[in-house]
């Protein structure tokens, strides 16, 4: 069909007509998309591909790794290290950064990813995904032979040059921003290509749907309790409308729903781990998702501050997350600020 717009064409046009992305970034994104296709194949094979269940290892956060966590991490590294566009990669599943080996040319970009998000859903055949974020290495002066370091990754999310995720659900969909709105591409399995199925995605400012793991209610802070209590009171409370709740436990799937029909997602700080700012990771989860949400007209804060303004100090830094429909995020943020 001639009217179908492929991911390749979208990226070429972003490069040529909008001058938004240089060719190296375009190629990098094509490679990430190809890696997601390979991961999708493993995910779809499931038990037939012997990819389900746990591996006998833990990641840097002390979480038991699933076989697919490791497979997806390897696929992303293998696919990306030879391309010549990257200086280094960082992953939720690796303690340290992975510098592009000497046998390949070093590029000027930094790639971060959560290779398989929603790991608890792998074995139960519920949507999971890959989340990625691209930064530029700060010192890109070709004459300066500074080796890439972890410090180069310590940039606020507002510095991202590309971000996206791929959701492996009933359909496999790649969602991307390079700073020109949000576009979605669905994998056409017969053709093996990504076909644009939405562009300039826009999140409604108001919503009647919230997403939070309610089993943690007793551990929440007062502003989160206040907001959720008001949602639960529905028509009888101050909000004057009934709310619906969804919690998939795969951030990719929850964010995908919000990009599609609005809503608000929260994974706030809670008393179970008082010294950690939250469960989700700033660099691999919160930053790319926050940029996508903002590009679609939504908002993303840690309850007090815009997530994209947070300057990281550690690779595996965690953060409290409130994102989605703008007016709801502003309300929850105001509740936090009032309580301070
Ligand atoms: P993961 O990267 O180890 O899969 O953890 C992140 C996931 C998110 O996708 C999801 O929003 C959250 O953890 C669910 O957590 P919980 O099981 O506490 O509800
Ligand atoms: Mg994750």
From TrEMBL:
This is Fructose-1,6-bisphosphatase class 1. Mg(2+) 1 binds at residues 92, 114, 116. GO terms for biological process: fructose 1,6-bisphosphate metabolic process; fructose 6-phosphate metabolic process; fructose metabolic process; gluconeogenesis; sucrose biosynthetic process. GO terms for cellular component: cytosol. Pathway: Carbohydrate biosynthesis. Its EC number is 3.1.3.11. Mg(2+) 2 binds at residues 114, 117, 285. Belongs to the FBPase class 1 family. Its main location: cytoplasm. One of its GO terms (molecular function) is fructose 1,6-bisphosphate 1-phosphatase activity. Keywords: Carbohydrate metabolism, Cytoplasm, Hydrolase, Magnesium, Metal-binding. PANTHER family: FRUCTOSE-1,6-BISPHOSPHATASE-RELATED, SEDOHEPTULOSE-1,7-BISPHOSPHATASE, CHLOROPLASTIC. Binds 2 magnesium ions per subunit. It comes from Malikia spinosa. Residues 203-336 form the Fructose-1-6-bisphosphatase class 1 C-terminal domain. It catalyses: beta-D-fructose 1,6-bisphosphate + H2O = beta-D-fructose 6-phosphate + phosphate. It comes from the Bacteria. Substrate binds at residues 117-120, 213, 279. Its cofactor is Mg(2+). It is found in: Cytoplasm. Residues 6-198 form the Fructose-1-6-bisphosphatase class I N-terminal domain. Homotetramer.
């Amino acid at each position: 069909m001639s009217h179908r717009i492929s991911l390749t064409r979208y990226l070429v046009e972003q490069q040529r007509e909008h001058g938004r992305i240089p060719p190296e970034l375009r190629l990098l994104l094509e490679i990430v998309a190809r890696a997601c296709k390979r991961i999708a194949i493993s995910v779809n094979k499931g038990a037939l591909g012997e990819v389900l269940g746990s591996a006998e290892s833990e990641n840097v956060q002390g979480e038991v790794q699933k076989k697919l966590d490791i497979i997806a991490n390897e696929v992303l590294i293998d696919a990306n290290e030879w391309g010549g566009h990257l200086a280094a990669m960082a992953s939720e599943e690796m303690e340290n950064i992975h510098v592009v080996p000497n046998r390949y040319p070093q590029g000027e970009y930094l790639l971060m990813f959560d290779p398989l998000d929603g790991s608890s859903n792998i074995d139960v055949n519920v949507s999971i995904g890959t989340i990625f974020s691209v930064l530029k290495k700060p010192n890109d002066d070709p004459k300066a032979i500074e080796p890439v370091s972890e410090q180069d990754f310590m940039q606020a999310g507002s510095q991202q040059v590309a971000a996206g995720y791929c959701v492996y659900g009933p359909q496999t969909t790649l969602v991307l921003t390079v700073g020109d709105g949000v576009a979605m591409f669905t994998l056409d399995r017969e053709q093996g290509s990504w076909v644009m199925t939405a562009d300039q995605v826009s999140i409604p400012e108001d919503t009647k749907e919230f997403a939070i793991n309610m089993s943690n209610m007793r551990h929440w802070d007062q502003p989160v309790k206040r907001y959720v209590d008001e949602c639960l009171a529905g028509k009888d409370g101050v909000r004057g409308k009934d709310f619906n709740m969804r919690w998939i436990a795969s951030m990719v799937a929850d964010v995908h729903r919000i990009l599609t029909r609005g809503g608000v997602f929260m994974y706030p700080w809670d008393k179970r781990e008082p010294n950690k700012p939250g469960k989700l990771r700033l660099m691999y989860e919160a930053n790319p998702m926050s940029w996508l949400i903002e590009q679609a007209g939504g908002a993303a804060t840690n309850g007090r501050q815009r997530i994209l303004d947070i300057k990281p100090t550690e690779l595996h830094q965690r953060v409290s997350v409130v994102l989605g429909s703008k007016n709801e995020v502003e309300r929850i943020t105001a509740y936090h600020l009032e309580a301070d």
